[in-house]
Each structure stands twice: as C-alpha cells, then as structure tokens.
C-alpha cells in the first residue's frame, strides 16, 4: 500500500518524466545502470508493504544505492519522486556527476519526512527549486547519478517508483501571516496564492490593509513573502488575520520600554564576525565574514611541502592532503607546534597489521585503527617517523615568509594542552604549564621576528577546565604556587614580552565547558562570565592584551534556536568589547547560523561599528536581546532577538523617525533572508514575532 505521503511539493506526472525504477520490471529502467557500493539488493522484492514490487536495500556503513543515467539529466527536470518504506532509515539523497566529480548537497531523508515506517510506503518529492532543509536550488551541472546513501550504521529499506519529474505543480497556499514592526503584516505563501482576501482585526475592529512589497530571496527563490501596511498601528490585545479559510490568531502583549542613547557609545571590533573555513569569496560577501580562520586538530601536522596533514584522533590518525588556501587569519599548525608534521598523504599511525586489537577501524580503510584498545586505554604509539617528519621554528618561519598572502594573526597550535589525546601518536605525554608556555614563547618569537606586524594568539585552550589547570592535573598547579593556569600564563607572558620587547597581542580561548576544577580559586564558580572574566584577568596580569574566541558555536546549527543564540551572541560580543571571534565551523549560508551573520553584515549592509547604549526596564535577557549601534553618530542600527514563544511589543524611546531597512528571519515566516523597507514614527512601538531576529537600519 502507498501511504498518504509527506510531499515537499505535489508532483504531477507528465509525458517527459524519466522513470528510474518502476514495479513489475525487476530491474532499473532502460538507460539506467546500477553503480551502487557496499550494499545488498533485490530488485524484484515483494517483501515490502502490500507486496508492491520494490528494491530491497541493505547498505553497510556509508553504502549506497547509486543509479547512473547513461545520458546525463543535467538540470532538465523539476524534481525527484520515490516511495520508501523502513524504520525511518538513515538515508541521504544527493546528486553527482561522473563527468566532473561534482556532488550536490547531501539531503537527509529526515529533512523530508520523519514518519517513514515499515507498514506503508511514504511518497517523497524533492523539488529541485526548493531543496529540503532550506538548501535552495539544485545547481546547474551535468548530473548523471542519483544516490541514496546510508549512514554510519548502514540502512535497511524498500524503495520503488523512482522517477525524475518533468513538472511540479505547487498548490497555492498561504503559509504564515504575522505582525512585525509598528504597523506591518508579513505574509509567506507558495504558488499563486490569492492575497486579495486577506483581512485583519485588531481588538475587534476591522482595519484596512495596503499591499506594499513582495520579495523572494535570491538563494531560495521558491520562498516568497508579501508585506502589508495596516491602517492602524499594532497595539496590545488581540490580532486576528484571516486568509480565505485560514485564520492566524495572535495576542500582542503590553509594551515593554527600552531607551537608546546614541551619545553613549563604545567601539565594536569588526573582527568578531569571523568564521572557520569560509569556502569562497562569495560566501564571505554574502554573510559579511570579517575573519577567516584555518585551524583545528587536523592542522597541527600541516606540512606546506606537499600540503600534507594528519587528522589525529578526529579520524584514525591518518595523513591526507589539506591546504589553507591563503586566508587572512591562519591558525594552528603553522609552527609545527608539536615538533612534527605529516610526511605524506597516505600514512597512518595504527595499522591493523601491527595493532590488530583496537576498538575500531576506518570503514574506508580497514587497516587504519583508532589507537584505542578494547578497554579504552591507548596503544603504545609507534615512532613518530612512521607517519611524520621533524619540524622546527626555522621551517615555520620559511613557511610564513613564502606565503603570498600573509596572515594577520597566527595561533600557537590548536588546543595544545590536550595533545596527549588529540595527537597521542605524536605527543603521548600530558602537557603541563611549563611546556605549553615554552612552546608559545618559541612560536611567538619566531612569528614576530619573521612578520613584525603579525599578531599572535595563545593558548587556544580547548575547554573551561584547562583555563585553570593542565593535563597533568592539580599537582601542576601546586608546582606553580597553586596558581590557576590562565592567570599564571598571562603573568609569565607579560614577563616574557617585557624581556623580548614584543607583545603576542591576543589571549585566545577555543571552547567553553562546564566542569570546574575542585581547586579553582577564581570568583563566582556558578557563572561563566567569559568575556568580562577574561578581561579582568588581562587587566590584572597582562594589560593591553586583547581577547579572542577562536571556536564557538550555537546550541544547534540546523534549528532556529541556534540561529537566535548566534544573533544574541554576536550582539553580546559587541556590547562587551570582545576583540575577535570565529564561529566553528563554516555555517550553512542558508541555515539559521548563516542567517545570523547575514542579519548583521550580509551583502554589504553592516551593523554599526560603535555600540549604542540600550536601557531596558523589566526585560529578561533570557527571552529578549536588543543591540543598537551607529557608525556616524547620527543614524542607528538595531538588532532585536525575541527568544520567547510569544510576540514582544517594544516601546522604543529616542528612536529617530524615518525610513528603515528591515531584515528578519525566524518565526512562522521561517528560515529565509526576508527584507523590506519600512517607515518608523518617532518613539513608536515595535512588534517582533516569537522566535524571530530583526535588524533595522536608519536610511
């Protein structure tokens, strides 16, 4: 039987549909070949729901059903449709080309349906102009492979009626209608929806609507929003929006007051809008990225003589090829922080032939192990020269000198204090205070001698625990006057800088955890207070040093809450005067995190470079964040992030009247780059929907 399907759009068969597999044939259709791997199939199985003939698929780890078109289908079709049954199998769909080795974004089945089951087939339609997971459109390419790839634990399922659709008819539907700003409605819809019947009632009184602008984001053109101006401003009470047979009900809360004071400002560092591994210049422009970091565990062993590196404990201690590409912020591995770099692109530290008794092995290279015995203890590592070649600061200096684009900042390796875990094959002994300090001073001296204007960031610590102690443990604290690590490190670097006449510039924190060492002597163990705490320590032990956070991330990169957290964090960075930050890592430019960066700086529209004082009354920062800025001391930009489940109604004092550029994402309107132009009256109220981030900039 065929289940009442969850469809991304409704597919309508046309004469030019291309059948890949149909019941009753026992094989792929003519013109299609089986290019699958690591899987077992029955192309004439009737063991699925209702006895419908289907392909029975049982994939091993990352195995795939891969169907090859003898004639490339390019971008000649509107979408893909198939029927699938299984216990919500871990399957992702992607398209690729054997002609140029290009692959599309991988689309998890779970982003299309979460109700795939064993009792019925679920029909899935993938719209190539509206890919699931907000992935936009399928790029132009000579596509000739449709792949259904299982996850790490494989996948078991039945699949049938696979075909490329010549046409997808999108039914007209109003998706959302919600209040925004002082007197606006934002309405999203699909297809040829009739907006002429839209009506609104505020506190029982009918108000007239004037349609203003309809907008579709360039990277998600299938998503459309229309803005309407209300004849009466939004006010506390009930709002009922009716669109045909659909009704949207809202309760606008009483106003909450806030005041902006453009005369009270402090500088915002442009370097807080950084990202790890931005892929290209277009990405940097689209999101307004200001710092590009190349770093992480896999860069520690980077060897410029061949662009070799090693994955370390992240992936079976395997060598491979990697290149920093000439980005302005180059971090980690530049110094060969652990005295070794990869000697080639193929070696690995723990071969099965030498160490047969390991916990796991690479599914793509069954001889490469993880270096862990079944009881969780480490294998005694082999000689480093099996996989690595020696590296020193002279070689690092030569690398810096040879770089065509010089870095603005270097860091002294990445999370070097846990090298005995992340790079156990290279540095098996726990690292303590003295060794870490010596390596930082050695690298900083080399960097400053080679590039006098380069800035140095250290110690790139991996977690909150290691801010206060070392991998050796509390005995290391005791050996250093019972001092916590960061205060001790800062004071020692201050002494070294005075002696050398050089300043490393940044203290760099890579990550925050939650554990607090028992001997911790810092104030308030119940609150992180990362930025003000580190600034206080800097002022006390190493004045003039700036603060960098080289790896930070949200609660969930794929969920709207992650995007709102990121908006809030970027605002906090500006208010508290953080000097530099880079997000870990490369957020999806169409996802919630990418939209957070876009909100502040996307496509050449920038939040100001001076933070403006915002005073709020009875507003909880747990549910609302408001950040204001200016660049010229006259015009303001404001970011509002509503983290609550209900709208917020703000009475903003001192907001200048005029025309404002508005950006927003979230709420019922969804994760898309919505924008328009609005008019704001002096000291007017401003409504922000639930789970929504808004940017307004005076024009």
UniProtKB/TrEMBL annotation:
Pfam families: Glyco_hydro_44. Gene3D superfamilies: Galactose-binding lectin, Glycosidases, Golgi alpha-mannosidase II. Residues 309-502 form the Glycoside hydrolase family 44 catalytic domain. Keywords: Signal. Coiled coil: none annotated. The keyword Signal applies. Residues 1-16 form the signal peptide. This is Glycoside hydrolase family 44 catalytic domain-containing protein. It comes from Gymnopus androsaceus JB14.
């Amino acid at each position: 039987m065929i289940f009442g399907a969850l469809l991304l759009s409704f597919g309508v068969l046309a004469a030019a549909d291309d059948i890949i597999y149909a019941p009753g044939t026992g094989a792929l259709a003519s013109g299609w070949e089986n290019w699958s791997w690591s899987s077992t199939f029955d192309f004439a199985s009737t063991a699925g729901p209702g006895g419908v003939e289907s392909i029975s698929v049982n994939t091993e780890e990352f195995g795939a059903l891969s169907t090859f078109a003898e004639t490339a289908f390019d971008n000649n079709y509107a979408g893909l449709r198939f029927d699938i049954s299984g216990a919500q199998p871990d399957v992702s769909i992607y398209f690729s080309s054997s002609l140029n080795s290009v692959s599309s974004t991988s689309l998890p089945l779970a982003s299309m349906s979460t109700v795939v089951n064993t009792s019925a087939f679920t029909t899935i339609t993938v719209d190539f102009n509206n890919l699931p997971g907000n992935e936009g459109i399928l790029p132009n390419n000579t596509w000739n492979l449709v792949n259904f790839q299982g996850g790490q634990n494989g996948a078991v399922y039945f699949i049938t009626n696979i075909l490329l659709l010549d046409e997808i008819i999108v039914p007209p539907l109003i998706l959302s209608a919600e209040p925004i700003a002082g007197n606006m409605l934002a309405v999203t819809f699909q297809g040829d929806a009739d907006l002429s019947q839209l009506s609104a009632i505020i506190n029982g009184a009918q108000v007239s609507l004037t349609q203003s602008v309809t907008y579709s984001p360039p990277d998600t053109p299938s998503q459309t929003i229309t803005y309407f101006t209300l004849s009466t401003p939004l006010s506390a009470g009930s709002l009922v929006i009716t669109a045909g047979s659909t009704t949207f009900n809202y309760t606008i809360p009483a106003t909450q007051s806030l005041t902006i004071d453009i005369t009270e400002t402090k500088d915002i560092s442009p370097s807080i809008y950084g990202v790890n591994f931005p892929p290209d210049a277009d990405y940097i422009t689209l999101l307004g990225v200001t710092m590009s970091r190349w770093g992480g565990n896999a860069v520690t062993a980077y060897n410029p003589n061949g662009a070799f590196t090693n994955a370390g404990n992240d992936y079976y201690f395997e060598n491979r090829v990697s290149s920093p590409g000439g980005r302005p912020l180059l971090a980690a591995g530049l110094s060969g922080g652990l005295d070794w770099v990869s000697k080639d692109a193929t070696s690995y530290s723990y071969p099965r032939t030498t160490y047969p008794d390991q916990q796991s092995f690479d599914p793509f290279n069954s001889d490469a192990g993880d270096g862990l015995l079944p009881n969780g203890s480490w294998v005694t590592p082999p000689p480093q020269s099996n996989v690595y070649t020696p590296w020193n600061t002279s070689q690092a200096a030569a690398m810096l000198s040879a770089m065509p684009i010089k870095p603005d900042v270097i860091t002294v390796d990445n999370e070097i204090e846990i090298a005995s875990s992340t790079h156990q094959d290279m540095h098996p002994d726990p690292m303590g205070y003295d060794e870490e300090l010596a390596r930082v001073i050695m690298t900083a001296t080399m960097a400053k001698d080679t590039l006098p204007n380069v800035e140095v960031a250290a110690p790139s610590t991996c977690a909150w625990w290691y801010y206060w102690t070392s991998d050796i443990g509390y005995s290391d604290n005791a050996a250093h006057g019972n001092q916590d690590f960061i205060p001790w490190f800062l004071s020692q670097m201050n002494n070294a800088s005075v002696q050398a006449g050089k300043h490393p510039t940044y203290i760099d924190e890579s990550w925050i955890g939650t554990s607090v060492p028992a001997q911790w002597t810092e104030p308030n163990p119940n609150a992180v207070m990362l930025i003000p705490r580190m600034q206080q320590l800097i002022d006390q032990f190493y004045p003039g040093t700036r603060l960098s956070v080289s790896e930070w991330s949200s609660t969930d990169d794929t969920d709207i809450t992650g995007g709102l957290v990121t908006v809030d964090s970027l605002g906090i960075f500006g208010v508290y005067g953080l000097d530099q930050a880079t997000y870990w890592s490369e957020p999806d430019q169409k996802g919630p995190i990418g939209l957070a960066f876009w909100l502040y700086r996307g496509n050449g529209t920038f939040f100001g470079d001076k933070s403006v004082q915002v005073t709020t009354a009875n507003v909880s920062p747990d549910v609302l964040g408001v950040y204001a800025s200016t660049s010229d001391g006259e015009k303001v930009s404001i970011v509002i992030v509503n983290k609550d489940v209900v709208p917020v109604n703000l009475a903003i004092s001192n907001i200048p009247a005029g025309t404002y550029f508005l950006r927003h994402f979230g709420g019922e309107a969804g994760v898309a780059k919505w924008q328009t132009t609005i008019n704001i009256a002096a000291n007017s109220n401003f409504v922000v929907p639930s789970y929504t981030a808004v940017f307004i900039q005076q024009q």
